[in-house]
Design goal:
This protein has about 220 residues and is an alpha/beta fold. About 45% of the residues lie in helices and about 25% in strands. Helix 3 runs parallel beside helix 4, helix 6 packs parallel to helix 7 and helix 7 packs parallel to helix 8. The structure holds 3,4-dihydroxybenzoic acid and magnesium ion (MG).
Length: about 220
């Protein structure tokens, strides 16, 4: 019952606020057909990320975890024509699918999907000097979230934002004794955010088509 209400409200908001978008729908359909888990962000969360990127005037965005490229499209659409979104994806098949979805929308020029473990790609980005990034969206394997946060701090600009997806996990995040590697990764991430002096961090719960979950939002301070 509760999930039905959450999904109905998401559908209501989507119907009124988010115009039908064939390209985004095609990305979701292709992802489902390829057997990807339904872990893309909800449409209203995708639009929220898009608005954050626009409000920042983002020119460079880093996404850790492309999956099928759905959030990639929302974020990349916020960039100017000479902007850049780098998205890191460990799985070659997913990276190819994400690439195809991004190219179909005409965003091939601004999106660079890099295949490989993010913990291998992130040091390379630092060496190359591809950043600093205005916005970092962490949405990959949760056990590595604390390590991804360290890299995000190295690669984000002062005044930029770091967003971490899926930090509630149906409330399991409150279980200090959890042996679930995802929960432990998220708890390590929240703990690191809480002690990190270079960030102002908060976390918000969400309910909707994707169940009960949430995300963190951190502002990168100077110094
Ligand atoms: C999971 C991962 C995600 O990125 C998401 O949005 C939902 C669930 C997961 O690993 O369970
Ligand atoms: Mg996610």
């Amino acid at each position: 019952m509760t999930q039905d209400i959450w999904s109905a409200v998401d559908a209501y908001f989507e119907a009124h606020l988010l115009p039908p978008d064939a390209a985004l729908s095609a990305a979701l359909t292709a992802s489902a057909e390829a057997g990807l888990p339904p872990h893309a962000v909800a449409a209203n969360q995708g639009c929220f990320l898009h608005i954050l990127a626009r409000a920042l005037g983002a020119r460079r965005i880093l996404e850790i975890g492309a999956l099928g490229g759905y959030s990639t499209i929302w974020l990349a659409r916020a960039l100017p024509a000479d902007g850049l979104l780098v998205s890191l994806e460990a799985d070659g098949g997913r990276a190819r699918l994400a690439r195809a979805n991004v190219v179909r929308v005409g965003l091939g020029e601004v999106v660079d999907i890099r295949v490989g473990a993010a913990l291998d790609s992130l040091p390379r980005l630092a060496e190359e000097g591809t950043g600093p990034f205005d916005l970092v969206f962490i949405d990959a394997d949760k056990p590595n979230n604390p390590a991804y946060l360290s890299w995000a701090l190295r690669l984000a600009r002062v005044g930029g934002l770091i967003v971490g997806d899926n930090v509630v996990r149906d409330g399991k995040v409150t279980d200090a004794a959890s042996e679930d590697a995802n929960v432990r990764g998220v708890r390590g991430f929240i703990s690191a955010l809480g002690t990190e002096k270079r960030l102002i961090s908060t976390a918000l719960q969400t309910v909707g088509a994707k169940g009960h979950d949430g995300f963190t939002l951190s502002f990168v301070l100077g110094g």
